[in-house]
Amino acid sequence: MQTSKELLGARIKEVRKLRQLSQERLAERVGVEPKQISRIEGGKSSPSMDTLESIARELQVEMKDLFDFRHLEGDERLDDQAYRLLQLMDDKTKRLAVRLLGTLAS
């Protein structure tokens, strides 16, 4: 079973990748070293509250969303996962996702 620190790190990594940001670019925007982002995402380090707030702001999510990692534990239903992912997308990406789903469904 993963620790909360590991799950938080995995969630940050997941959202960072959805936003198509490298660890280096996120670190630059947050004002920390890239190694710190790597340690946080790897579950080896806990971010300070200030760092966590900056990460959430740069990833364009509310801080509470970084603690929504039920899907990483396997407890979340597929419908809920899809809805959660759609909430993280901008309109352009949502349109692409809907077209892809339509293609897969036909």
Give a written overview of the molecule.
By secondary structure, this protein is mostly helical. The protein folds into two domains: 75 residues, 434 Repressor (Amino-terminal Domain) (Orthogonal Bundle); 31 residues. The protein contains seven helices and no strands. Helix 2 packs across helix 3. 15% of the residues are buried. The mean pLDDT is 90.
Q: Could you tell me the mean pLDDT?
A: 90
Strand fraction equals under 5%
The total tally of domains equals 2
CATH architecture of the largest domain: Orthogonal Bundle
The top level CATH class name of the largest domain: Mainly Alpha
- Going by helix content, strand content and strand pairing, the class is mainly alpha
Quick structural overview:
With 106 residues, the chain is mainly α.
Throw out a few tags for this protein:
0% strand, 434 Repressor (Amino-terminal Domain), mainly alpha, 106 residues, globular, 2 domains
List strands and helices in order, with pairings.
Blueprint: H1 4-18, H2 23-30, H3 34-41, H4 49-58, H5 70-73, H6 78-88, H7 91-105
